[in-house]
Every structure is written in C-alpha cells, then in structure tokens.
Write a structure and sequence with these properties.
Helices cover 37% and strands 25% of the residues. It is of the alpha/beta class. The strands form two sheets. The chain has a six-stranded mixed sheet with strand order 6-7-8-3-9-10, sandwiched between helices. Strands 2-1-4-5 form a four-stranded antiparallel sheet, covered by helices on one side. The termini are far apart. Keywords: ATP-binding, Nucleotide-binding, Transport. InterPro entries: AAA+_ATPase, ABC_transporter-like_ATP-bd, ABC_transporter-like_CS, P-loop_NTPase. GO terms for molecular function: ATP binding.
Length: 250
C-alpha cells in the first residue's frame, strides 16, 4: 500500500437540487492528522458522512487506498469500513450500557474473541484514553470530556488504520479540548493511525493539524489546502481571517 489512505476526486455533495460543495479533490496521507475546516454550515460534517457512505455523492468518488468506496457493493464497503473508527460529535455512546459494554460492542459484533479476551481489550482501550478503572460507569455519570474519551476508546476498539473525528472540541471547555487534542496525537503516534478531524476550532487546527482543507460555504468549493500555520500566514484572505482568531492556550 502507498502513502495515500483516502483519495477524494471530483466530489460534489448536495441535498436534492441544492449543492453544498462541488468538485472536491484531496488526498489524505498515511500517518497524518488531516483537518477539514471552515465556518459552521459549510459542509464539513456532510463530507464526513460521504467518507462513511452515510450519504451518496451527486458526482465524484471516494477511494480508500486504491479501491473505490463509492462504487463498491455493500459487502466491500463493510470490509473497508472495518479499517475505520469514528468519533461522532456527540460521542454516540449507548447511555444504557456501561463504558465497558460500549467499547466491547464492536468486538462482540466483528471478532471471534472470547469474552475474557474482550474484557482485556476493553481495559486496554479505556486505559489508553485515561479511563482505566471506569469500566462500570455509565456515560451519564461522566463529564463531557470523559464521554469524548470513552467514545474514542470505542472508536479504536478494532485497531483501525483510520480515525474520523467530528468536532472533537464541541461543548468542551478549552483546557479539556486541548487535552483531547493531545490524546489524538498520542493515539496517532502509538497506534500509527491516520486521523481526519472535522473542526472549526482554531486551537485544534493549529495545534494538531498536519495539513488542512478549507471549505468555503459561499463559493461551495475548497479555496485552500496546506499546513495550517502556512495558511494562516500566506493563505487567501478569508482563510487568514478564519485562522486569525484567538489561539491562546490555558
């Protein structure tokens, strides 16, 4: 396999006759933290849904490695998605299940591991995100930041090659958001995971992004791509303005 993990070619996204983004072309490289950024409502989460096959493109294609995901049959899509872990914006934990049960669910569904091995993997994954000892807690007993970390533990339960993360800092205070940023980098380094992070949080973009893609909602297209720090200093005026917000660390 080469260094291109995800390739998007000529992707046009829309709802009925309304176009959200048109002619998206970009590549995500192995081992990087690739940021999809832009103002609220520009289509960032919609793009994530296209990468997961939850929404079909109006035109264009998504490829994983050199295999078309867009045109693949259902069984091939499911096989490809086994390589992908997802942290949704709201964590999407089952509130009626303990953390251990939430993290165990993908292992029970997709692996032949016995219960004892699943318990060991669950303890390891929760430990990796700093939640060792919280196996028997329910999501509603945790803070927002802890829920995000629990969602991340479930996302890495199957040792994915790729992590798709939607608005990791949403509803978190700045110190908690920065700790979650650091955790994403730690998991990337420890597990060799490639991360695609959808966010409009400037501190996250500049703090952990290897490369960034800027979606312009008015132009309905990508207007900049590159290292966040470089885009902040020499990108288009609207991108520089977007990245010029406060990035003060607590």
């Amino acid at each position: 396999m080469g260094d291109d993990v995800i390739s998007v070619r000529g992707l046009t996204m829309g709802f009925g006759d309304r176009v959200v983004m048109r002619d998206l072309d970009f590549t995500v490289h192995r081992g990087e933290v690739f940021v999809v950024m832009g103002a609220s409502g520009c289509g960032k989460t919609t793009l994530l849904r296209h990468l997961l096959g939850l929404q079909e493109p109006t035109a264009g294609e998504v490829r994983y490695d050199d295999e078309s995901f867009t045109s693949a049959p259902r069984d091939a899509r499911e096989r490809i998605l086994r390589r992908v872990g997802v942290l949704f914006q709201g964590s999407a934990l089952w509130t009626s299940m303990t953390l251990a049960e939430n993290v165990a669910l993908p292992l029970e569904q997709f692996t032949p591991l016995p219960a004892s091995s699943i318990r060991a993997v669950v303890r390891l994954k929760l430990s990796l995100v700093g939640l060792g000892g919280f196996e028997d807690y329910y999501p509603w007993e945790l803070s927002g930041g802890m829920q995000k970390r629990a969602g991340l533990a479930r996302a890495i339960s199957l040792d994915p090659e790729i992590l798709l993360i939607d608005e990791p800092s949403a509803s978190l205070d700045p110190p908690t958001a920065r700790r979650l940023d650091a955790l994403i980098l730690q998991l990337r380094d420890a597990l060799g995971t490639t991360a695609v992070v959808v966010t409009h949080d400037i501190a996250t973009i500049l703090g952990i992004g290897t490369r960034a893609l800027f979606l312009d909602g008015e132009a309905q297209r990508v207007i900049a791509e590159g290292a966040p720090a470089e885009l902040r200093s020499s990108g288009p005026a609207s991108v520089r303005a977007f990245l010029g917000g406060s990035v003060a660390r607590p």
